[in-house]
Fold this sequence. Notes:
- The chain contains nine helices and eleven strands.
- The protein has helices at residues 49-57, 79-85, 102-113, 123-140, 156-168, 186-200, 212-218, 236-241, 243-249; strands spanning 9-20, 23-29, 32-34, 38-42, 64-69, 72-73, 87-90, 174-178, 204-208, 221-226, 229-234.
- It binds adenosine-5'-triphosphate.
Amino acid sequence: MNEAKTGEILLQANKLTRRFGGLVANQDVSVSIARGMIHVLLGPNGAGKSTCINMLSGDLPPSEGTIDFMGRDITGLSAAQRSRVGIGRSYQRTNIFPQFTVLENVRLAAQSRKQQPWRLFSKAMEQKWALEKARACIEEAGLGGRVDWASGVLSHGEQRQLEIAMVLATDAQVLLLDEPLAGMGSDESAKMVELLKRLRTTRGILLVEHDMDAVFAVADVITVMVNGQMLECGPPAQIKASVAVQQAYLGTEDSFHV
Length: 258
Ligand SMILES: Nc1ncnc2c1ncn2[C@@H]1O[C@H](COP(=O)(O)OP(=O)(O)OP(=O)(O)O)[C@@H](O)[C@H]1O
């Protein structure tokens, strides 16, 4: 990470379009994710945010457009291949083994990244490496006091932290986070906001989020999507001042205060 530069573009999506039959869920969407920055995708229900994140993670192939990661065209890579090159994703629904401990869940995530090279090494070395890696990621995600807890007994907020620890264990340079604050109370949200700010220092983050207070607390760049298209992209002050954005939110459930 010595060569890491804040502001360096890690991931660039160029004019992504995705059709489902006759429905255009994303049209000409171009977003970039830079190291040291949090980019938030905002938009009313059905705007196309999940479709966009699914294309970036490799869960959904674009109908048109390309995606570059650190200067390499990765449009044809699967989700698993993208995870191995450094693009990590968390999902809206928690994706953990509840009966396993926090440490076991994160260790498995660490090992998923490195399969081939371990043929050269002993099982014991692999275990030691993965456990050390897992402990470091658990600490970074703020779950240091829960290492040996069964994951299923963690609070909702802690389970989201665990998911982030699992993504970190894959050595992700880019974190794609789908509603990391969903279902959280205000204390848990505040903790997650602080965690996101810490993680941003060495990585690039793109998140989909509906909690406006949190969005404006963490975002460096916001892209507002409506009907599958980019309505506006810019720093939070520009988005807050945009009449078009305010109109897009009129009559929706999400509160949008200026
Ligand atoms: N697999 C699919 N097949 C058909 N249509 C889909 C599929 N996935 C999404 N869509 C449609 O694409 C449009 C965009 O959906 P998407 O889930 O990307 O929006 P969103 O902004 O993430 O919404 P939400 O905030 O409710 O999660 C919607 O009209 C949705 O019904």
